[in-house]
Amino acid sequence: MFRVTERGEQNCFLVEQPIDLLAAARSMRHYSREENSASDFRHYYATATDIPQDTFNTYEQERRENTGRVVGAFDIDLDAGTFASLDITEGWNTFTVRDVVTAAYRADRKNYESNAERTDKLLGYLAGKELPQPAPGMDMAQTMC
After folding, report:
1. How far apart are CA 40 and CA 4, in angstroms?
2. Could you tell me if 5 and 77 are in contact, meaning their C-beta atoms sit under 8 angstroms apart?
3. Helix, strand or coil for residue 93?
4. 66 vs 48: CA distance, rounded Å
5. Where are the alpha helices (DSSP H) in the chain?
């Protein structure tokens, strides 16, 4: 599931296929390389279904509880240039879009590696590049879709 802020608008949506961090980072990389700025990030997911903020919050909680129903939760603010992923143990981890795009490129350089190996490379590149978190009480889920 995604919450994406782009061109001043915030939208939440679900996709049918399971999207993990590596898949979301790849989509971000492809989007950032696209020359047609008229399209939005959501077009990478043909099966996207809009959801309201309260449904996003419900699914966010399921991800935190690791129920297995929600594989990935992402909060992408293209206007601010940030990409956040919800980790079940650490909460939201926020990075610059540039770091995520670079990590996706590095993770996919060798075609013979498994997705697990690529994910490890992605995480290795992003390690230590996390942006500071908001002050306590300023949960990212408080913004509106």
Report:
1. 10
2. yes
3. strand
4. 22
5. 21-33, 53-65, 97-107, 115-126
Residue 24 carries which side chain, given as an amino acid letter? A
**Is it the case that residue 138 has pLDDT exceeding 90?**
no
What is the widest separation between alpha-carbon atoms in the chain? 44
H/E segment holding residue 130? none
How far apart (Å, rounded) are the C-alpha atoms in residues 127 and 134? 19
pLDDT digits 0-9 by tens, 51-63: 999 999 999 999 9
Tally of CA atoms within 13 A in the half-sphere of 64 that contains its CB: 11
Phi, psi of 48, rounded to the nearest 5 degrees: -65, 135
Beta bridge pairs of residue 111: none
Instruction: Tell me the per-residue pLDDT of 66-102, one tens digit each, with 9 for 90 and over.
Output: 998 899 999 999 999 999 999 999 999 999 999 999 9
- 14 contacts 52 by C-beta, under 8 angstroms: no
